[in-house]
Specification:
Elements: E1 4-6, E2 17-20, E3 24-27, E4 31-32, H1 48-60, E5 65-67, H2 76-85, E6 89-90, E7 93-98, E8 100-101, E9 109-110, H3 114-128, E10 133-138, H4 147-159, E11 163-169, H5 173-180, E12 187-189, H6 200-208, E13 212-213, H7 230-238, H8 242-253, H9 266-274, H10 282-288
Parallel strand pairs: 1-6, 4-5, 5-7, 7-10, 10-11, 11-12, 12-13
Antiparallel strand pairs: 2-3, 8-9
C-alpha cells in the first residue's frame, strides 16, 4: 500500500473492516475487477472510459481491496487498473493472482511451475506499477506440480520483498494445510455464495484461524428473479434488491468474509456498495438456509 492521499469512504462502514495478515486492514466490501475486461474476461474493456469511471468510483466509495489476476485479459486487467488509479491511493490493497494461463479465450490452464510463478509475479509487479504486491494468491493448484513447490516459490518471492502476503484460491482444507506448513497463508479465495456453499469447511477453518475468505462468484445465487425465492422474500422486507441481499448475507455469514462483487456499470456498483448498509435479522439469515 503506497501512493497518495488516503481513501475517504462515502459509505461509513462498507461492512466494517478486517485486518489481513496482522498488518493490512481493508474494508470488508471489496471490488472484483475481472468484469472490466472484454467478453469472456478476454481483451480490452468494450468501453474503456466507462470502465475507468467504475474503477475510480469504487475507490471514491471507500473500497480498499481490488481483486485482479494476470489471467484476466490476460494481463489487460492489471494494466488497466494501473492506468486508471496510479499513483495508487494510500490504503488501497490490490490483490492479484498467478498460476493460470490463457492461450485462448475459453482456456484457463493451470501452471504452478516455479519458473512460471516467478515470471508471473514479475509481470504483475510491472503492469500494476508496484514495488511489492500486498496480496499475491496462487490462482489454483496445478495437478502436475507439487503444491509445496508452487507455494514454496511464493514464499521465496515473499522473502525477496516482492510479495507482502500470500493467499490461495480454489483450494480444499487439505491443500490449505499443506501450504500452511511452508508459509503463513492470510487469505483463501474460493467460489462461495448464497446458493453454493461447498466451501463451508474451508470457511470454517478460515474463521477459526482469522484467515480472510474472499468468495469469488459472490452473486451467483440462483432464482434472483423468482418472486418466491428466499432472496426475493428477504429483499422485499428490506426494500432492497436480491443482489443486495446476497451481498449482505455474505457479510453477515462470517466476519472473515470479504465479498468482491464486480460490475462494469456505475449503477450496479452503487447498488452493491449500498448493500453494506443492510442489517439482516436472524429470521433473514435462517431464510438463507432454506434456499
Amino acid at each position: 500500500m503506497n501512493g497518495q492521499a488516503p481513501i475517504q469512504p462515502e459509505v461509513n462502514t462498507l461492512g466494517g473492516s478486517l485486518t489481513i495478515g496482522g498488518d493490512m486492514t481493508v474494508h470488508r466490501l471489496g471490488f472484483g475487477a475481472m468484469r472490466l475486461c472484454g467478453p469472456g474476461v478476454w481483451g480490452e474493456p468494450l468501453d474503456p472510459a466507462a470502465a475507468k469511471r467504475v474503477l475510480r468510483r469504487a475507490v471514491e466509495l471507500g473500497i480498499t481491496l481490488i481483486d485482479t489476476a494476470d489471467a484476466y485479459g490476460p494481463e489487460v486487467n492489471e494494466r488497466f487498473i494501473a492506468e486508471t488509479l496510479y499513483p495508487h491511493p494510500a490504503g488501497l490493497v490490490i490483490a492479484t493472482k498467478g498460476g493460470l494461463t490463457r492461450p485462448r479465450r475459453e482456456a484457463w490452464n493451470t501452471n504452478g511451475r516455479p519458473e512460471h510463478l516467478r515470471a508471473a509475479c514479475d509481470g504483475s509487479l510491472r503492469r500494476l506499477k508496484l514495488e511489492r504486491i500486498d496480496l499475491y494468491q496462487l490462482h489454483a493448484p496445478d495437478p502436475r506440480v507439487l503444491l509445496e513447490e508452487s507455494v514454496g516459490t511464493l514464499a521465496e518471492l515473499r522473502a525477496a520483498g516482492k510479495i507482502r502476503h500470500i493467499g490461495l484460491s480454489n483450494v480444499s482444507v487439505k491443500e490449505l494445510r499443506r501450504a500452511q506448513r511452508i508459509v503463513p497463508i492470510v487469505s483463501v479465495q474460493n467460489r462461495y455464495n448464497f446458493s453454493d456453499r461447498s466451501s463451508d469447511d474451508v470457511l470454517a477453518v478460515c474463521e477459526k484461524e482469522s484467515i480472510a475468505f474472499l468468495p469469488w462468484h459472490p452473486l451467483a445465487a440462483g432464482g434472483y428473479a423468482a418472486g418466491g425465492s428466499a432472496l426475493a422474500r428477504v429483499a422485499r422486507r428490506h426494500g432492497a434488491t436480491p443482489v443486495q441481499v446476497a451481498i449482505a448475507w455474505l457479510l453477515a455469514r462470517s466476519p472473515v468474509i470479504v465479498p468482491i462483487p464486480g460490475t462494469s456499470t456505475l449503477d450496479h456498483l452503487e447498488e452493491n456498495v449500498a448493500a453494506a448498509r443492510i442489517r439482516l435479522s436472524a429470521e433473514d439469515l435462517n431464510a438463507g438456509g432454506r434456499h
